[in-house]
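Customer escalation, tier 2.

The customer says the design service returned an amino acid string that "doesn't look like it belongs to this structure." They asked us to rerun it and document both sides in this ticket. The original structure tokens are below, unchanged.
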């Protein structure tokens, strides 16, 4: 009897993915994108539109921007354990329902503290680790970075769309209306999640030896730093573009969209080569070093074309790191404990978002935008050095 093998899809950007892997990656990317679009819609405008609410200050607005990361961080590991026990899809649906509830609370807010509470409740739908575990469950390890990058690009697409529509939409519906839109997006994400496979995956991963060791701690610290820097960037950059460059908020998409699209074109070919040679860890020090360059440029007052180059470098480094780190974590666990381990990883991811929003707002208020960006550049270059030392230590221990 002939054995029928599943066909693989030959696409330049996505590598040799099976149809089931491509379909799952696209569906999970859409689920995550709808949820993240809800979060990103307010990202470019919250620091400015929240100024009309009672109790506003830059610190309070920064807290509202990043507090969802704190509640995400608290619940990532419980959600991961629950998904190991009760199934990924069921837990994803529950998390999206909590996100919808938080959006309604934020939409009804009459002051900064109610807005902060709604954002915190949005974050209680802590499904990031569960989604990554779901993707890893159904994807071969050699092709896993590509699927992780698809999910990351879904987040990137949500960001691009939010940049293009948030300001025009906010001018019509206001900050409260944006949160009603996010509630509808959460419902859309629930409908998409119902299309994911409910059966157990056929892939059985053998956990790598020493999975819960210093390499996991290093990856958790790295994702913390990456998202702290990302949130700090968007606490500072919108006001910097308005104040230093005279770019109205409605024009910011002209910087973000081309630079993100350019970085996306480069990311997938790079990931194919990286995954083929298992060179993820070798890339990390260089990616963090690259991340320091745009922050250093943002701290000055470069020409507009150089500002665009800085944004492109930022998105390239961010998307590479965002794709390879979850793949590295997934190889450290077998099927039974993947949700818990991914939950630990994403706990630090959202703690980073909370820290970046809160500390970035405080730094902006106390030191100003240029010094805040310069400090971020120094942190990134320092972590590139730490990453290099961690890589040498891992090589020596083999």
């Amino acid at each position: 009897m002939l054995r029928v093998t599943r066909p693989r899809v030959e696409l330049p950007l996505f590598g040799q993915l099976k149809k089931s892997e491509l379909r799952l990656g696209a569906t999970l990317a859409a689920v995550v994108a709808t949820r993240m679009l809800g979060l990103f819609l307010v990202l470019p405008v919250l620091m400015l539109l929240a100024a009309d609410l009672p109790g506003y200050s830059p610190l309070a607005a920064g807290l509202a921007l990043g507090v969802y990361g704190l509640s995400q961080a608290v619940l990532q590991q419980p959600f991961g354990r629950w998904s190991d026990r009760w199934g990924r899809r069921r837990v994803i649906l529950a998390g999206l329902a909590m996100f919808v509830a938080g959006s309604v609370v934020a939409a009804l807010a009459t002051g900064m503290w109610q807005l902060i509470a709604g954002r915190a409740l949005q974050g209680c739908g802590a499904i990031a680790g569960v989604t990554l575990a779901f993707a890893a469950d159904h994807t071969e390890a050699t092709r896993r970075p590509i699927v992780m990058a698809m999910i990351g690009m879904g987040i990137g697409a949500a960001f691009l769309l939010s940049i293009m529509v948030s300001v025009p939409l906010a001018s019509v519906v206001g900050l409260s209306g944006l949160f009603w839109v996010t509630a509808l997006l959460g419902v859309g994400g629930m409908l998409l999640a119902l299309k994911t496979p409910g059966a157990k995956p056929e892939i059985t991963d053998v956990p790598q030896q020493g999975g819960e060791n210093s390499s996991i701690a290093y990856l958790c610290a790295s994702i913390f730093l990456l998202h702290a820097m990302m949130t700090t960037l968007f606490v500072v950059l919108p006001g910097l573009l308005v104040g230093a460059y005279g770019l109205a908020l409605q024009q910011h998409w002209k910087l973000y969209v081309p630079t993100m699209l350019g970085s996306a074109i480069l990311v997938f070919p790079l990931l194919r080569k990286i995954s083929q040679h298992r060179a993820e860890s070798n890339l990390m020090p260089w990616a963090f070093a690259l991340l320091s360059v745009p922050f250093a440029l943002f701290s000055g007052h470069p020409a507009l074309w150089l500002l665009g180059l800085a944004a492109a470098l930022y998105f390239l480094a961010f998307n590479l790191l965002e794709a390879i780190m979850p793949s590295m974590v997934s190889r450290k666990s077998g099927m039974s404990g993947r949700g818990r381990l991914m939950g630990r990883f994403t706990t630090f991811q959202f703690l980073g978002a909370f820290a970046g929003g809160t500390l970035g707002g405080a730094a902006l208020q106390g030191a100003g935008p240029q010094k805040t960006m310069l400090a971020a550049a120094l942190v990134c270059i320092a972590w590139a050095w730490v990453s290099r030392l961690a890589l040498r230590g891992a090589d020596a221990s083999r």
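Tier 2 assessment: The sequence is consistent with the input. Strands lie at 8-11, 15-18. Confidence is low (pLDDT under 50) at residues 1-12, 206-212. Sent an explanation to the customer and offered a walkthrough call.
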